[in-house]
Each structure stands twice: as structure tokens, then as C-alpha cells.
Amino acid sequence: MPQCAVESRRYSQSSACDVPEAALPAFSSKDMLTTSAPYWPAAAEPWSDRRDGITGEEYFVRNRSLTAALIVIAATFISSLPASADVRIRISKSSQSMTVAVDGWNQYRWPVSTAKRGYYTPTGSWRPFRLERSWYSRKYDNAPMPNSIFFTGGYAIHGTTYVNLLGRPASRGCIRLHPSHARELFALVRQYGMKQTRITITN
Description:
five-stranded mixed beta sheet, 3 helices, 9 strands
């Protein structure tokens, strides 16, 4: 009689050429992996031959814990970074003054000189587009314009040697500052970036 037929009599649930029940590996629900990957019995588990003896289930559990720890560390590091500040420079022609706010907090208030009679200082709001630590006016006899912050056309905020005129209109259109204040403002805009800076001039 064929071997397959003999086996089918001895094992009621076997079909032709089935493996005897005694040869099947024993396992329980604890051996199941809690993932969507195909099930592997413990005897044939692909991770069971690791030199460190870690089973597949332990491997995935340990990696989940490591991933969670890394996420916590990354979140802590990101939260410790300083937020990008917003620099607001406001010039009032009527009071001949400038206020500088960083992230909504007023940091400085300085006297300025805007355009004198016969000249014009524009009103509006801009972002600076160029920074020049050392610059000379091409229009007005190479007049020095240290720490220039250009915001529209040839108009800029810059330092002046005419410090005794600050607080009243005296320029030919630009915004004049005390040299030390111009240097400090220049460094501030450079630190936080022109894209984070807004210059507003009002009457």
C-alpha cells in the first residue's frame, strides 16, 4: 500500500503526504509577533539564531523603546533652541525718534534725523535688502554712511557725524543715528536676519 495512504489512516486530519503531528513544532499564542508581518513559530523564528540570543519579539520591543527614547531626546533638544526673533524698527518723523523692538519687547529708543526741508524721507513699511558696514554716498559728495541698512532705493538707516543735530530734521532723506546706535542696530539686524526685520516710517 502506498506510504501516503498508510499515513492518512493513522492521522485522521492529514491529507495525502501530510507531515505527522509529532513532527510539527509546538507553540502557543505567546510566540506570535504583535506585528503585521507573517507569523513564524518559535522553532523557525528568523531572529532566534542571533548571537545575543534575542528573540524576534524582544528585538521589536527593544527597538520600540529606543525609538520612543530618541523622540523624547529630540523634542527636548528642539524645545531648548531659541525661537527666531522678530525685529521691528519704527521711526516717527514727528518725534524724530526710533524705537526698536525684539520679539514684541521694546529694547531701544534713540533720537534720529530724517529729511530736512527741501528733501524727503519716505513713509511706509519695508524689509531691509542690503547691509553695508562701510559705505559712502555716491549722490552727496561721498558722505560717510557707516553701518548702513538699506530698505528702499538709496534710502538707508546709518550713522552720522552730525550727532548734535539728532532729534530734529537734518538729513537729505536717510535716517541718521548716533554712530554707536547705528553700530548696535546693524549688529542686531545682522544677527536676526533681514527677513526677520521690518522697518516702518510714519509721519
